[in-house]
Amino acid sequence: MMKVRKFTAFLGAVALTLSMSEAVAEDVVATRTSETIMTKGGNDVPIAVTISGNPQGRPILFVHGFLASTINWQKQLHSDLGDRYKLVSVDIRGHGSSGKPANREAYTDTGLVAQDIAAALRAAEVESPLIVGWSYGGLFVMDYVRHFGTDNVAGIVLIETIGGMLPPPPPPPETPERMARIELSRSANIFTIKKWTDEFVDYWSAYEELPADEREMVELSAMLVPHYVRRHLRDHPVDNSDLVKDIDRKVLFLNGGESLSPKKGDVDQIQSLIARSTSKIYPGYKSMVQWYNAAQINADIDLFYQTITP
């Protein structure tokens, strides 16, 4: 009975979070355009695309990571970046408001994810955006580069990721404890998933406790990802080392100083391989730096974009 009451309370929190999100969106509409549209990605999967900011501005496309969505870009989409730029965020298949096909190939075929991103760009009517990928989203960005190249890319910003551009290290030992936690993350039981998500957000918020309303939004973003998507995405290709030679655009790597991944040595190695790349580390930050250190991240994205000739 206690579990039911707790879950009922969670559902109430979700409803409150959604209403708060709508209120924020309505407030943004008063000063600049803001809308979410649906388009068709790879294999006609419905893909949600959120557009805000300056309609005449140079475009920025935000690509979220695993167990995330457009929600995780709120502090960019609703920021001063919108005064200068047209801001676009895509919910990758299986996440947020996008379609969630159940078959494994929908998540292991990099071409389908690339088509999702290409469809988002067409729907938003933008060309040559600065593409910003966070965490697992770095792999999604590289999926796009693999299948569509860089002709329609102004530059790339990778936050807490190197996009798989170094060969992946050997996986951790498959200890009983680790395997048990992986299985929990894939559970179809809603109570188990809620408990696991709480712990997952605890890791994200290890640097500083999130305010209750913000924590609810981040939890909602993760809870929108079904158990089968969590399972299938673990099989998504992660080795993009063959693409390093094809990166002919400026690249900016942004990472928290306490982040577990990527390691500074990996970023340094990638920088030595990509001619026009640079990096910045935010001391003391562990994860989700675009949320905790939003003002500085936004300023650095702005400054970087200004170095790229239209």
UniProtKB/TrEMBL annotation:
GO terms for biological process: acylglycerol catabolic process. Residues 59-179 form the AB hydrolase-1 domain. The keyword Coiled coil does not apply. GO terms for molecular function: monoacylglycerol lipase activity. The keyword Signal applies. One of its GO terms (cellular component) is membrane. InterPro entries: AB_hydrolase_1 (IPR000073), AB_hydrolase_fold (IPR029058), AB_hydrolase_sf (IPR050266). It comes from the Bacteria. Pfam families: Abhydrolase_1. SUPFAM superfamilies: alpha/beta-Hydrolases (SSF53474). Residues 1-25 form the signal peptide. Keywords: Signal. This is Pimeloyl-ACP methyl ester carboxylesterase. It comes from Parasphingorhabdus marina DSM 22363. The lineage of its organism: Bacteria, Pseudomonadati, Pseudomonadota, Alphaproteobacteria, Sphingomonadales.
